[in-house]
Structure formats: C-alpha cells, structure tokens
C-alpha cells in the first residue's frame, strides 16, 4: 500500500506562511532601498572612522601643545592646558560637522543658527566675555603664576588655578576664593612671590634712659649672626620714631623669599631676650602727671 503523505498541522502551515511573507518583505525592501542602505552604511562607517581619527588628533594636539608650552619658561602651565582644551573642542566640532554632512544634513543652516545664537549669547554674556579676554591677557602677561601669593584689592591668597573665567586662590587660613579675571586684571596686583629676595622691617622700642648706640649695636649683631638674613644688602638699624614712652628702633634686613616669614618671626622672638640680656629695657607706655596746687586757695 502506498504511504500516506502526512498532513501538516495548522501551526506549521502558519509558520511557513509568515516566513514566506517575511522573506518576501525583506527582499522587496532591499531591492527598493538598496542604494540608500549602502550609502547609509558607508556614511556610518566613515563617521566611526572620523570619530576615531578626531580622538587621535585631539590627543596628539594636546600632547604637542603641552610639550611646546613647557619648553618656554615665560609661558605658564595654565596656558598649555587652556590652549589644548580649545584645540580639542575645535577638532571635535569640525569632526561633528563632517559627520553631519556625510549623513546628508545641511550644515550651512546649522552654522547659521549657531552663529545667530552665538551672537545673542555673546551680547547677553558680555561680562563673561570680558572675563575671558582678561584671562587670556593674564595668561600671556603673567603678573602671577601658580603658587604665587598676591594681593589685589580685596582679594589676597596663593594662586591655585588660572582659568578663562576665574582665578582660584587659597588664603593663609585655608579659605577658597574664586575671583573673576576682569577684577584682577583691572586692579593693581601686588605679587609677594615674584622677586627672589624680600625685605622685612621689625620695630622695637628701648627706654629713653638706655644707651641708643648700645641698643643699635646689639640689634645689628643679632641680624649679622642670623643664618637666614642676607648680608648683601647689609642689614640696618634705624631710629624710626621718638615715641611717648620709648625710642623706637627699626631692624631692616633682607632674606630669601621662601625664608621671609621664618626669619621675620625668629627675629621678633629673639628681641626681648637680647635687649634684656644686655641690660636694656623695653618700656611700657607711661604718662607723667604733674599736679599743681592752687596757691590762692585758703586766702581771705
């Protein structure tokens, strides 16, 4: 007897029909959009290649700019960081425009919109732009660098970072200050760290009854024997004031900038012992009061 052909189930038949429809739809879609899909695939691949190249070029540009700025002592390290950041932004922006152009997006209209938006933002942020201009001038004129202690108007502290918008400082008591660049650039800047040597003035008083010459000699010897005080320029002892209760003597000496405060406090700490050891006195403020008797009182 001939074998009977098995009758497929309804579920199997449904799967065959769906697969046939899917296969037909895919073939039809590919035939209709083959050129567009190939173009899109090429654009995506080129876009990925451009992103990789942009990343490589941005990294290389950063290294080259930092290396170039470090070769010049007159250029602060912050200049290299800012320039490398600007270069990296330009490279990525240029890569984005190329990718958009590959995808068929009209970049001319985008640039027009960005230009108009940039103009509006620039007008609204003129103060911020002035900070950027001041920051660029500060970076190139270099009135201070990282680690310098400055005094500028109401702002004083050690420079920690120089940015395009603000300069950050740390005060001696550990406070954080972010000062707008336009404020710093528009005010006189006193830089305590710029010069290698610095002069200190310390004033002490001796009694009017003490020998002035002896006092000046003792104080001058103190400065000549001090290891942190420079002997060229030579230290001096000057009579700075004939005060109410004392003759004030000013010790004027030079020291290396990094040793300034150590030398200053050290000399102050030794003054009392040196003067009293030589028999001189540091007088307290005092007043002489004279009482006058009225002779006319008690007369008839």
Summarize the structure.
Helices cover 53% and strands 17% of the residues. It has 300 residues and is of the alpha+beta class.
Could you explain how this protein is built, in words?
This protein is of the alpha+beta class and 300 residues long. 53% of the residues lie in helices and 17% in strands. The protein has a 5-stranded antiparallel sheet with strand order 4-3-2-1-5. It has a 3-stranded antiparallel sheet with strand order 6-8-7, covered by helices on one side. A hairpin with a 2-residue loop joins strand 1 (149-152) and strand 2. The mean pLDDT is 79.
What attributes characterize this protein structure?
single chain; 300 residues; alpha+beta; five-stranded antiparallel β-sheet; three-stranded antiparallel β-sheet; 7 helices; 8 strands
Instruction: Please compute the radius of gyration using only Cα atoms.
Output: 41 Å
Number of strand elements: 8
Query: What is the mean predicted local confidence, pLDDT?
Result: 79
What sort of overall outline do the alpha carbons produce when their principal axes are compared?
elongated
Structural class: alpha+beta
The quaternary state of the protein chains shown equals single chain
Poorly predicted parts: none
Helix content: 40-55%
CA(first)-CA(last) distance:
175 Å
Please write the string of helix (H) and strand (E) elements: HHHHEEEEHEEHEEH
Strand order of the largest sheet: 4-3-2-1-5
The major pleated sheet works out as:
5 strands, antiparallel
Percentage of β-strand residues:
15-25%
Total DSSP helices = 7
């Amino acid at each position: 007897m001939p074998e009977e052909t098995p009758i497929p189930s309804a579920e199997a038949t449904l799967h065959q029909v769906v697969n046939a429809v899917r296969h037909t739809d895919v073939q039809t879609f590919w035939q209709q959009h083959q050129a567009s899909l190939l173009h899109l695939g090429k654009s995506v691949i080129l876009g990925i290649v451009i992103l990789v190249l942009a990343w490589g070029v941005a990294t290389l540009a950063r290294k080259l700019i930092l290396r170039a700025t470090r070769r010049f002592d007159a250029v602060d390290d912050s200049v290299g960081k800012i320039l490398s950041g600007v270069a990296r932004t330009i490279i990525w922006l240029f890569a984005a425009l190329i990718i958009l152009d590959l995808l068929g997006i009209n970049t001319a209209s985008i640039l027009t919109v960005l230009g108009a938006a940039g103009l509006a933002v620039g007008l609204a942020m003129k103060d911020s732009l002035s900070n950027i201009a001041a920051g660029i001038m500060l970076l190139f004129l270099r009135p201070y660098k990282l680690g310098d202690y400055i005094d500028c108007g109401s702002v004083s502290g050690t420079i920690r970072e120089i940015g395009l918008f603000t300069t950050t400082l740390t005060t001696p008591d550990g406070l954080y200050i972010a000062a707008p660049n336009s404020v710093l650039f528009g005010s006189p800047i006193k830089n305590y760290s710029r010069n290698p040597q610095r002069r200190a003035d310390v004033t002490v008083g001796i009694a009017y009854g003490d020998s002035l010459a002896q006092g000046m000699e003792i104080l001058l010897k103190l400065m000549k024997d001090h290891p942190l005080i420079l002997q060229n320029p030579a230290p001096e002892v000057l009579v700075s004031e004939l005060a109410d209760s004392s003759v004030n003597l000013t010790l004027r000496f030079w020291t290396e900038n990094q040793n300034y405060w150590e030398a200053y406090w050290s000399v102050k700490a030794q003054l009392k012992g040196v003067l009293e050891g030589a028999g001189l006195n540091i007088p307290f403020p005092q007043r002489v009061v004279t009482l006058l008797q009225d002779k006319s009182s008690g007369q008839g």
